[in-house]
Structure formats: C-alpha cells, structure tokens
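Fill in residues.
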C-alpha cells in the first residue's frame, strides 16, 4: 500500500499499491477495508518481508496449475500473483480448516471481515476449498451477510452440483424481488438451459 485517494466528500475511493490504482468499490464494504488497511499501513507501513512474499507466491502456485512450466530450464522470468491474490493473502492469513471453523463459530464483526478475506483468498488460491466454504456459508443462516458473495462465486462454476444448490435455494426460499441471490440463481439456471 502506498496511499489512498478521496472523493469530493472526503471518503476514500481508491487505493494505490505496487504502482497501480485500484477502486475500493471492488469490496462489499469498502469503508471497512479502508479502515483496516489504514490502521495496518500506519502500524507497519504495509511492507512485506521477503519471506512473506515468498510464502504468498508459493501459496499462489496452484493458480497456475493449468500452465506447463519447463522442467530444469530457467528462462529468467518468474510468475507472480496479481495484486488481489497478494492483498487477500496478506489480509486473510491462515486459511486452515481449523481457522475457518473458529472464525465461523465467533460470528462477530471481526469474524465477518476475516471470513470474507479467507473466502476471497481461497477463491484465488484454492478454488476447491472456496467451493466447500461457499456451500458452508449458504447453509448457515448466521452468515447471511456473505450469501451474495458466495452465490456470485458459485455462479462462476459450471457444475450440476451448483445447479442443484441454486434450485434448492429457489424452492426453499420465499420469493423476494429484491433478493440478489435469487436473481443470481435464476440467471445461472437460465444460462444453463
């Protein structure tokens, strides 16, 4: 993190990291992200140690599983994660099953933020685990605040299991024209026909 920019109302609207500018509206609750990043950057100036970057790069390896890397040949270029992978890795920290269970058991504002960051990190780095977490989120009414995010993620996956999840949601939930999850499920199912 190198800085923030603000709109006319003096609210943060962009953040700067690694020489790039990013819209804070990429996040569901940008003001919470801003407060967290501001506090973190003030306390440690958001400088990752070499070991932290190496761990993040190592954690991101499975993002490129579909690419064949030459064996024993170094062409002098490396593969690096994008800014979102690094940001979520830094913010989320440990994404073990034990930590996910602990965070989901807490159910407070801090846990909500932590679970959102864990979920985002898993989407980039461990899609299979993200899929399982999305299912846990939508089957736990205590995490309704993350339903939309889970539905959006599930809608990116072409599978009959997701189709079944969405059909069950449409059947089991009451109709509400403002229900974003219902709209996501409807659109997904209409596109699969």
């Amino acid at each position: 993190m190198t800085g923030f920019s603000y709109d006319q109302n003096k609210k943060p609207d962009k953040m700067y990291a690694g020489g790039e500018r990013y819209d804070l509206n990429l996040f569901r609750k940008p003001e919470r992200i801003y407060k967290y990043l501001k506090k973190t950057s003030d306390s440690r100036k958001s400088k990752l140690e070499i070991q932290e970057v190496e761990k993040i790069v190592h954690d991101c390896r499975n993002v490129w599983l579909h690419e064949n890397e030459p064996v024993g040949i170094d062409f002098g270029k490396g593969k690096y994660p994008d800014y979102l992978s690094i940001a979520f890795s830094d913010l989320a920290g440990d994404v073990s099953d034990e930590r996910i269970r602990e965070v989901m058991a807490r159910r407070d504002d801090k846990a909500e933020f932590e679970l959102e960051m864990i979920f985002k990190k898993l989407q980039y780095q461990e899609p299979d685990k993200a899929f399982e977490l999305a299912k846990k989120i939508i089957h736990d009414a205590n995490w309704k605040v993350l339903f939309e995010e889970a539905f959006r993620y599930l809608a990116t996956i072409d599978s009959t299991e997701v189709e079944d999840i969405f059909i069950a949601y449409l059947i089991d939930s009451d109709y509400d024209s403002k229900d974003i999850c219902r709209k996501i499920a409807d659109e997904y199912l209409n596109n699969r026909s």
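The longest helix spans residues 109-125.
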